[in-house]
Specification:
With about 230 residues, the chain is an alpha/beta fold. The protein contains 10 helices and 8 strands. A 6-stranded mixed β-sheet has the order 2-3-1-4-5-6. It has a two-stranded antiparallel sheet with strand order 7-8. Helix 3 runs parallel beside helix 4 and helix 8 packs across helix 9. The radius of gyration is 25 Å and the shape is elongated. The protein starts with a helix and ends with a helix. The relative contact order is 0.10.
């Protein structure tokens, strides 16, 4: 047995460099691994602070994550990807980019499973791009529809004797309203409702596509949320 191993070692040492590389790649392709990734914290476009890695100081670097998912789809040794999804703070465009990367992984034959720690809209939206979703029996699925909150500062500024001055070109230019009004103007409410409706429609359509449901069925479930883990499973 020892002699056979020695002979194989000599053969490898005397192989041309190209054949040796092919042999090593073949051996690596025979190994099947599961890539485990934790997604949580604030999703950022640029790196900040010291150190390297995907997650740092409570921030998830979008570029590194997308690059890692792309490499996983190209590496023949990666059989599956397990995503542990914690609480995420991300813009809708960022969520859609990550979701598209997950979908591309599945197109390339990789199985993708998601475990949700505290599933809200952002976390569940990502998870619905995966093959399977799991969560703790003690958690709940907080899917009730999107909302937006606006804080108005005019009352506090009046107490301080401070007056804000803004120039706005048109009634829908509402940036200065939190400083000059104590409630929303109708154009501000209309524009905010328009944005929320578009995001909510994207959420419902994404969940429907990922779970193989009709959009109307998903909307009906959202209208009845939130759900316990057992209710969500059913």
């Amino acid at each position: 047995m020892l002699a056979v191993r020695s002979l194989l070692g000599l053969l490898l040492l005397n192989l041309p460099a190209r054949l040796l590389r092919l042999a090593l790649e073949w051996r690596r392709s025979r190994k099947r691994v599961i890539l485990r990734l934790r997604l949580s914290g604030q999703v950022v476009e640029e790196r900040g602070g010291r150190g390297v890695g995907l997650i740092r100081q409570g921030q998830l670097h979008l570029g590194s994550l997308l690059r890692l998912l792309r490499q996983a789809g190209q590496d023949p040794s990666v059989e599956a990807v397990a995503l542990y999804i914690g609480s995420l703070q991300a813009g809708w465009a960022q969520l859609e980019e990550i979701r598209e990367a997950i979908a591309l992984l599945r197109e390339r034959g990789r199985t993708v499973h998601a475990y949700l720690e505290r599933p809200g809209h952002a976390e569940y939206f990502l998870a619905t791009a995966c093959d399977r979703i799991a969560t703790s029996p003690l958690t709940s699925l907080g899917i009730v529809g999107l909302r937006s909150e606006v804080t108005f500062f005019k009352g506090a500024m009046d107490l301080l004797g401070v007056q804000a001055h803004f120039e706005a070109a048109g009634e829908f230019k509402s940036f200065g309203e939190p400083f000059t009004r104590d409630r929303m103007s109708e154009p501000y409410r209309e524009s905010l409702d328009f944005v929320l409706s578009a995001l909510h429609r994207s959420f419902v359509e994404g969940v429907a596509a990922g779970r193989g449901l009709e959009a109307e069925a998903v909307q009906a479930q959202v209208d009845q949320g939130p759900w316990s883990a057992e209710e969500a499973l059913a």
